[in-house]
From TrEMBL:
InterPro entries listed in its UniProt record: PRTase-like, PRTase_dom
Coiled-coil residue spans: none
GO MF, one annotated term: glycosyltransferase activity
Domain of life: Bacteria
Key words of the record: Glycosyltransferase, Transferase
Residue ranges of domain Phosphoribosyltransferase in the record: 185-276
Key word Transferase present: yes
This protein's name: Phosphoribosyltransferase
Length: 288
């Protein structure tokens, strides 16, 4: 077993192929996010009959199961698939486990767990509470993206950097990546945030990835057009970067369709990466 396997014990190691991207693009109506602050605030419910003590129900296992296993300190922790709904659940038989899961939900209340092709994938926050109101991080992301000339810009970047720093300091796996890399199409301020992170062992290889062709990517309207543009974009990965069996933390500002991140992750896997984790500042209100 290589060192990376010890660091990421219990974390899946997915292959990503073009067919996986096409499946990811298909809107089958299934939930693609878990957000304990809103849509899944009642994922944990006590059983009125007391047998079991409570039930924990979520729409998918992606990311959340390995993080719960690690945070709850139990290698035996698992979510099981319901035979009737095909959705993950767990019967909670005692108050101690109930309180542990409740504490997990509290710690990750604002975090968005994402169902996609990556090995672990999260957003720090939703970008909006509703159509008219941005979340706190959503407002910071908006200001950084659309008002770089503002006198408050440096404070906005400092706040976003602090949020990402605190997140990485407090949760397992993500900070243990070998490399951190900003998605090449991200806005420039995301690189500023990543360059401001302190105290981590990962190396920033953002400058080692670039698009050779971007015009079609920017003008794509549908997901099908965007995939075609991505396939024709000729993503360049510098030869001097050793990706073999390495883990990468891939960072972007906004997770909307998520397709660009999935494509970059696929190319990194094709270049030899073992695991790709995704982290974005915010998740859009749409797309489940």
């Amino acid at each position: 077993m290589v060192l990376g396997d010890f660091k990421f014990l219990g974390v899946p190691c997915h292959s990503i192929e073009l067919d996986d991207l096409k499946v990811f693009m298909a809107d089958d109506g299934s939930a693609k996010r878990i957000h304990f602050a809103t849509s899944h605030a009642h994922a944990l419910r006590k059983d009125s009959r007391g047998k079991p003590f409570a039930w924990f129900n979520v729409p998918f296992r992606n990311t959340i199961e390995p993080l719960m296993k690690k945070e709850l300190g139990s290698s035996n922790f698992a979510l099981f698939l319901s035979k009737t709904t095909d959705k993950p659940f767990r019967m909670v038989f005692n108050e101690k486990e109930y309180e542990d899961i409740l504490a997990f939900m509290g710690k990750y209340k604002d975090i968005v767990f994402l169902r996609d092709c990556l090995d672990l994938s999260l957003s720090l926050s939703m970008n909006r509470i509703d159509e008219n109101t941005r979340t706190e991080i959503g407002e910071l992301e908006y200001q950084a993206k659309y008002h770089p000339e503002s006198s408050e810009y440096s404070n906005v970047i400092a706040s976003l950097t602090e949020r990402m720093q605190g997140f990485l300091d407090s949760i397992p796996f993500f900070k243990d990546a070998d490399y951190i890399c900003v998605v090449p199409s991200s806005h420039a301020f995301v690189r500023e945030i990543v360059s401001g992170l302190k105290g981590f062992d990962f190396s920033d290889i953002s400058s080692s990835l670039s698009w050779n062709k971007t015009s079609e990517l920017k003008n794509a309207e549908s997901l099908e057009d965007k995939l075609d543009a991505l396939l024709n974009s000729h993503l360049l990965i510098a030869d001097e970067v050793d990706l073999k069996e390495k883990s990468i933390l891939l960072v972007d500002d906004l997770y909307k369709s998520g397709l660009t991140m999935q494509y970059v992750a696929m190319m990194l896997k094709n270049a030899g990466c073992s695991r790709v984790f995704g982290l974005t500042l915010v998740k859009s209100l749409g797309n489940n």
